[in-house]
Design brief:
The chain has 364 residues and is α+β, with helices and mostly antiparallel strands. The protein has 16 helices and ten strands. Strand 4 and strand 5 form a beta hairpin. Helix 4 runs parallel beside helix 12, helix 8 crosses helix 15 and helix 14 packs antiparallel against helix 15. The longest helix has 21 residues. The chain starts with 12 loop residues before the first helix and ends with a helix.
Length: 364
């Protein structure tokens, strides 16, 4: 039995007061009562908003957000096996303070020994709007996201706290398990989306399936902390009723890797080809400019080589996730959107050719 609430319905006033008290927010006030409601569309975790009423005036927050392990056994099992809950709790405990990326302040971050139950209690960022993968975004939102990516990668490049975080390296044998599961996922994905994805996109899925071990075992030349799922559904825009442009949430796929993995993922399955193609060069130039500003300059040729390979991350994620999280109508549409945009980017830049060349040169 976990020593913390593992679902929204298990949260009580005493536990909330304890967390707010440790954060120095409660003062003499006490929680008179509270309600909660589910929020978000996450498929490997359940998120709720708590509305609190106090017994006296206080500066303590009127609302909080809580995140818990998924109630769905398929999603929960996948997340625990892939150590997704371990990673998100570890990020907020150990690494969030290293970066300038806007993330929610966390008041509680607890996980059980086997990584199957956890709780995160956050500030409620009160965005004007949440990013929506299926609705897309405009250029200004894309620019804000690219700036956040550079802030993340620039601050953590070769950082000892990142490279030394054992929980970021994954358990022994995990990459081999993911590779075997990916081959199963590829069969499921191809059957589900045959006729919905263009033939060249499906052929690209086949090509990646043949090279997935190569993809999984690549070693970045300049490792940094990456988000791993850097797309619109994990972004909040107009935070604090518009006071701040963007915040990044859902860090359960954070990892040590190449920063252009996040950028390629966002530019492909994040914003889609209609926005990407006319603005791609400008957005990549903005990333390079921001990296230099953060003290981590990147040469144009190096950036493009890594970008071509990073584009495959969106395709990999869409294929794998479609098979191993709870299936929903929105999820099906979401994975199709991700795969389509990622495949178009990878085809535009011959990402499979770049992956093959990587094996010859060893550069990633």
């Amino acid at each position: 039995m976990a020593e913390f609430p593992t679902a929204p319905g298990e949260v009580d006033s005493a536990w909330l007061e304890l967390q707010l008290g440790k954060a120095g927010l409660l003062g003499q006030a006490r929680i008179a009562d509270f309600t909660w409601a589910s929020i978000g569309t996450g498929q490997v975790g359940d998120t709720a908003r708590f509305a609190l009423r106090y017994d006296r005036p206080t500066a303590a927050p009127a609302t909080l957000a809580g995140k818990f392990a998924s109630a769905d056994p398929t999603s929960r099992g996948t997340a625990a096996s892939m150590q997704l809950y371990v990673k998100e709790v570890g990020f907020y405990r150990d690494l969030a303070g290293l970066i300038e990326v806007r993330t929610p302040r966390v008041y509680a971050a607890e996980i059980n020994a086997d990584g199957t139950d956890f709780v995160l209690l956050f500030e409620d960022l009160a965005p004007e709007r949440g990013g929506n993968q299926l609705e897309g975004c405009g250029l200004a939102d894309s620019e804000a996201a690219v700036r956040q990516a550079a802030a993340l990668h620039g601050a953590t490049k070769a950082h000892p706290a990142v490279l030394g975080a054992n929980w970021l390296h994954g358990r022994e044998g995990l990459l081999g398990e993911i590779g075997r599961l990916y081959h199963q996922a590829h069969v499921i994905f191809r059957e589900r989306y045959d006729g919905q994805l263009a033939s060249d996109a499906l052929a690209l899925c086949d090509a990646l399936d043949l090279r997935v071990e190569r993809w999984l075992n690549r070693q970045p030349e300049e490792p940094c902390l990456i988000h791993g799922d850097f797309r619109l559904d994990n972004m909040l825009f107009g935070v604090g009723s518009g006071a701040e442009p963007i915040a990044i949430v859902d860090w359960q796929t954070c990892a040590i890797g190449c920063g252009m993995t996040d950028v390629g993922y966002f530019m492909g399955c994040g914003i889609g080809s209609d926005l990407r193609r006319p603005n791609e060069a400008a957005l990549l130039a903005l990333y390079a400019e921001e990296m230099a500003r953060h003290g981590a300059p990147i040469a144009q040729d190096v950036m493009m080589r890594r970008y071509r390979i990073g584009a495959l991350h969106g395709l990999f994620t869409a294929v794998f996730s479609a098979a191993f999280v709870v299936r929903t109508e929105r999820g099906d549409a979401n994975f199709l959107s991700m795969a389509r945009g990622a495949a178009e980017l990878a085809l535009d830049h011959d990402s499979i050719g770049a992956l093959d060349a990587m094996m010859e040169t060893g550069q990633c």
